[in-house]
Design goal:
Layout (H helix, E strand, L loop, with lengths): L4 H18 L6 H6 L2 H14 L10 H18 L4 H5 L4 H27 L11 H13 L2 H11 L6 H23 L2 H8 L4 H17 L5 H33 L8 H16 L12 H17 L11 H25 L3 H12 L5 H8 L4 H29 L1
Helix pairs in contact: 1-3, 1-14, 3-14, 4-12, 4-13, 4-14, 6-7, 6-15, 6-16, 6-18, 7-8, 7-9, 7-18, 8-18, 9-15, 9-16, 9-17, 12-13, 13-18, 15-16, 16-17, 16-18, 17-18
Length: 404
Amino acid sequence: MITDDRVILGLLAAVLAFVFFTRDREGWQKFYIFVPIILVCYLVPSLMVTFGLINVDDSNLWPIAKDYFLPAALFLMTLSIDMRGILGLGPKALIMFFTATIGIVIGGPIALWIVAQFDPAIVGSGADAAWRGLATLAGSWIGGGANQTAMLEVYGYNIENYSALIAVDIIVANIWMAFLLYGAGDSKRVDGWLKADSSSIDALRDKMASYTASVERVASANDYVLLFGATFAVVGLCHLGGSALGSFFAGLWGEEATLASSFFWVVVISTTLGLAASFTKARNLEGVGASKFGTVFIFLLVAVIGTKMNILKIADAPSFMVIGLIWMLIHTILLLTVARIIRAPFFFVAVGSKANVGGAASAPVVAAAFHPALAPVGVLLAVLGYAVGTYAAILCAAMMAQVG
């Protein structure tokens, strides 16, 4: 079993290299029609963990990916954004986002009630009450890690049992992500079933791709130094500002507040600086490959995220895992029902869901699976998820408490 991060990163890079080497090779093309490339980049690392090739229990790859790759990708992907085009996507994006939120809020108490009919002991009491632990899941699936931690502090769930909820969070959310990535690879067929008009998304994608082509040029070493120098200067600035703002709000409202999370501010600052730069001449950095390098960082993120999922851990908390699966199923059914009613494209279903369930680490990944130029849409919705996460999780927790 490999535990050395340097070796693990080399294996993940080798997986990405193999996938992109074979993507246009005869014989592999048919395979990638049925199994999207981004899904392979996600699933292979997860299988490495599941079958014991690598062990990431003490790995620092995720903190590195989250703290370096993610803000760099957010900045680079938003640098060439067409803000008017995104606003032109219309209200369906917000409708699907809030539908996803509602699905999590009502799914929790319904799932807990269903499982409690077969396993009454799951309800628990006091600090071991299931609803207290599931409140942390609601915080994670509506906002993110900061909201999850806030719910743990607010409701005082027994920390000794918390690892089971972490397993449910990671496994169920990533199983759902796998389905979304698969759907992204065949989105036209799904849109046909939803009777959706995806013309506005196609227009935005084509417009952003056309802009990239119009400013593209042969890059020099100076161009790359400028691009990476600016990008990682922004990453450093994001962490400097994130730490300062997190500490400031922690002093005002306590460590459990969403705004006390430095990661929240890293996401907000990197996105804001990218958006601001898109209105300046810095947008021309797209011509030397800004979004392409952003895509590289996103695929590295995908591979590292894949290592967080060990399918065998489902056996550690069977009742909680069943609750999580039912909960996600309710979320999914509501999303697809509303999407079919309003004829929303699958893109809005996928990104609206992951902006809640996955946050800034996953929403741009799913959006980029449709097209790299669409990643900024996922970023913007993910920031909205952070904003409403705590409030919606509190509402969900109050409803689950009534079941217990």
